[in-house]
Amino acid sequence: MMGRRRPRLVGTLASLLVLAGMATAASAQAAKPRIVPGRDPGGPAVALISTGIDYTVPEIAVRLARDGEGDILGLDLVDGDNRPYAPAGQSRHPDWSDGTAAARLLAAEGVRIVPIRVDPDDPLSIARGLAFVAQTPARVAVAPVAGDDPGRFALFAKVAEQLPNVLVVVPARHVAAAAGRPTPLPARLGLSNMLAVLSEAEAAQDAGGDPAMIVPAGHVQPTVAPTGHAAADAAAVAAGVIGVCGPAWSASVLAVDLKRAVLEQARRGAAASRPILQRCAARSRTGP
């Protein structure tokens, strides 16, 4: 069952943006670690848009989304290949949280990871990263970035608007925000398919953001900047909803409905009886 089809513009836009990025030489592959052979782990996928991850980390390597030949479903829009590598602990930009830390959390939650590396200073690269999601099995995309430059996210917003079936999860606070600082971009865009997230610790500090979801403090590793980590945690929750609701439900539902299910689940708490998951699971057995 195909469900609602994404607008034709999405496929065209994604192809143009991605193919333009693939024109760069693949010579950088020689300087990167090889990708550990493996098979697709299965399960719901989350696209992780970041400045790169260390895909050699064992717990991350086994959760990478792969095609039938074992090649990872990932993209490096900086080097023009499918090895979105960056050393762990290096976000390479003050507005971006460490991609490897986010990947570790997603892996720990059993999520299938689609890693996408973008140039944090290139608005077109950031937009291409989101456009590529339309060509993957991911229905959730997390971008651990929080900035202030409207020009950097204008094209990103246009792409997001053309992806009504993709839930875009972003931080609701800057990486190093002072109390009372305004909500950053892209969270400030306020798109219907966007979920802005804070950690519980950040909310207690009066970060000045306007989050739709607050992640419990126990879900955030204290050694990692909570801003991007909370967003990754929320993306894992969304993947969990999809996993229980099944492919029939997730193929037909819009991102705004997925966001509503995630928020209801968050309000009820992890220890609740998960009625929203039970309901959508029942729908997946009888059709959306």
Structural description of this entry:
- The chain has 288 residues and is α/β, with parallel strands linked by helices.
- The chain has a single domain (8-244), classed as 3-Layer(aba) Sandwich (Rossmann fold), CATH 3.40.50.200.
- The chain is 37% helix and 11% strand.
- The protein has 10 helices and 7 strands.
- The protein has helices at residues 8-21, 58-61, 99-108, 123-132, 150-161, 200-204, 226-245, 247-252, 255-268, 275-286; strands at residues 45-50, 75-76, 112-117, 140-142, 167-171, 194-199, 213-215.
- It has a 7-stranded parallel sheet with strand order 2-3-1-4-5-6-7, sandwiched between helices.
- Strand 6, helix 6 (200-204) and strand 7 (213-215) form a beta-alpha-beta unit.
- Helix 1 (8-21) crosses helix 4, helix 4 packs parallel to helix 5 and helix 7 crosses helix 9 (255-268).
- The protein is globular, with a radius of gyration of 18 Å.
- The termini are close together.
